[in-house]
Amino acid sequence: VQLVESGGGLVQTAGSLRLSCVINGPPGDMFAMGWFRQNQGKDREFVAAVSWSGAFDRYADFVKGRFMISKDYARKNVYLQMNNQKPEDTGVYYCAAHYVYSDPDFLTTDAVDYDHWGQGTQVTVSS
User: Fold this and answer.
1) What is the residue-level pLDDT of the chain in tens, covering all 127 positions?
2) How far apart are CA 111 and CA 103, in angstroms?
């Protein structure tokens, strides 16, 4: 399974970016998806997660009302729409996939639960 992120870049405070994550893997596999970020000198932190079904999602408190996670119809791409960005949103954003065996509504916010990670995409918010 390979995850490929894109969409990072430089944006001004209050601006928007949309991150994309393409999942390359066996067509029958189900994955709960998450976005995490890591800023220099800090631990990787949870940002948002969505179930395989797309029916459930969860957000870190510091992005609620500003970011939105979504999946496309084919469920092979995951997106993170980031609005009203702040300088503290700066960091490397990682897409992650957790293999789901039976419950398409499962999701997790814990990084240790994720089986596959992308290479990361840099997001920089200037003040």
Assistant:
1) 999 999 999 999 999 999 999 999 888 888 999 999 999 889 999 999 999 999 999 999 999 999 999 998 676 799 999 999 999 999 999 999 999 999 999 999 999 999 999 999 999 999 9
2) 19
Q: For residue 120, give both structure tokens.
A: 């990361």
Strands, E assignment, 1-127: 2-6, 9-12, 17-24, 30-38, 45-50, 57-59, 67-71, 77-82, 91-100, 116-117, 121-126
**φ, ψ for residue 49, nearest 5 deg:** -145, 155
DSSP conformation class of 101: S
So what's the pLDDT on residue 41? 83
How far is it, in rounded angstroms, from Cα 127 to Cα 107? 34
- State phi, psi for 93 to the nearest 5 degrees: -100, 130
Helix (H, G, I), strand (E, B) or coil at 103: coil
Phi, psi of 28 (to 5 degrees): -85, -5
The half-sphere exposure of 122 on its side-chain side, counting CA atoms within 13 A, is 5
